[in-house]
Amino acid sequence: MTQAALKNFTTEIARKRREVSRLQEDLSNMLDHLAVIEARAKSADGKRYTTTEVKKALGI
User: Fold this and answer.
1) Number of other residues whose CB lies within 10 A of the CB of residue 24
2) CA angle 34, 39, 44 (to 5 degrees)
3) Burial zone of 14 (CB within 10 Å; 0-12 exposed, 13-18 middle, 19+ buried)
4) Contact (CB, 8 A) for 40 and 49
5) Which residues does 43 contact at the CB level (< 8 Å), separation at least 6?
6) Block means of pLDDT (10 residues each) for the chain, length 60 residues?
């Protein structure tokens, strides 16, 4: 590989790693949100809980 091609390859790998990290963070946030929604749905029969209360109970 030439030096320019190697630099481009290295830059692309770094960009992809940043993108994967961002996607993992987004997925984590979505899963947290889903957990809150599911907890609220389960509590629909009884007392209603605020988002803050649910997050505290789930340790989020």
Assistant:
1) 10
2) 125
3) exposed
4) yes
5) 49, 54
6) 88 97 96 86 72 83
- d(CA 46, CA 58) in angstroms, rounded, equals 18
CA atoms of 2 and 14, how far apart (whole Å): 18
Q: How many CB atoms lie within 10 A of CB 55?
A: 15
CB neighbourhood size of 40 (10 A): 15
Other CB atoms closer than 10 Å to residue 43's CB: what's the count?
14
Eight-state DSSP code of residue 48: -
